[in-house]
Design a protein that fits this description.
By secondary structure, the chain is an alpha+beta fold. The protein contains 2 helices and 4 strands. The longest helix is centred in the C-terminal third of the chain and has 50 residues.
Length: 126
Amino acid sequence: MENYIITTIYFDGQFWAALIEKNADGVCYTGRYVFGSEPSNPEILHWMIYEFDKVPLLKTDGPVKIRFRKIVDRSEKSLTKSLDAFKESQKAFFEEKKTEKRKKNRESKQALWELKHQKAKEKKNH
């Protein structure tokens, strides 16, 4: 019989974990190590070098299968729909901001014109 070790790193729905399957002289051993958050490549390398051999392995009848649930892919339409809604609300916000700025500019120009006009009248009257 062949001796081998298979390590599978997977996301179990809540945590990232490693499943270790070892076959030594026809006897199967299995162990599991939980990383927690998604491990980076250097973290996996450190784990393989320094902690891999410390993972307890239990004797099993045969290889263990991991059940994978299909990840529900958000449809492209819903993503596009929400993105379009965001763009529309952003566009409305900026249009409103632009309108307010124009109104303020118009009011300030009107106030300046009235002030100039009033000063000119006062000059004529004196």
